[in-house]
Write a structure and sequence with these properties.
The protein is mainly alpha-helical. It is built from 5 helices and no strands.
Length: 164
């Protein structure tokens, strides 16, 4: 016998014995679960055909969607028209002079707001004067130009509540 023939016979015997061992021990990579898809889940070389819809099926789906949109638009239009009718009734009950007149604040309310705002700014200026004595406080009456809003820690500490 030739040595090559002997080596081929030995290799064949080894592979047969390894297969028998894996069947008996069940610890081979074939028997163990591997990460990824299961072995039989996809057939290699076999590609799934892309599913397509017929023209009639697409048209049925489109018609159903158009019907859904029309239904929702009708409902929205109905709500809008009913709210417009209610608004129309409430404005018709008012006098014609009040329909065109804008809402304005009374002079007393304006004076209260102005006084509260002046008090807030005075407080801000006082706080700014305490934190930086080198800066001079500019009077709003003497200057013709508008002052810019203060920035920095004094501006952040301004109270928001009226009357404080």
């Amino acid at each position: 016998m030739n040595t090559n023939d002997i080596l081929v016979a030995i290799d064949a015997e080894i592979s047969r014995l390894q297969q028998a061992r894996t069947l008996l021990s069940d610890t081979s990579p074939i028997g163990k679960r591997q990460p990824g898809r299961p072995a039989g889940s996809s057939m290699p070389g076999k590609v799934k055909a892309k599913r397509t819809l017929s023209a009639e099926a697409r048209e049925k789906i489109a018609a159903a969607q158009r019907a859904r949109w029309a239904k929702s638009k009708r409902a929205a239009k109905k709500v809008a028209s009913s709210s417009a009718a209610i608004a129309k009734k409430s404005t018709a009950a008012r006098s014609p002079a009040k329909q065109t007149a804008k809402r304005t604040m009374s002079a007393g309310a304006r004076a209260k707001i102005a006084a509260a705002q002046k008090a807030r700014w005075a407080k801000v200026r006082k706080a700014a004067k305490k934190t930086s004595p080198a800066k001079k406080a500019v009077s709003t009456k003497s200057s013709g130009a508008k002052k810019e809003a203060p920035s920095g820690p004094a501006a952040a500490a301004t109270p928001v509540t009226p009357g404080s």
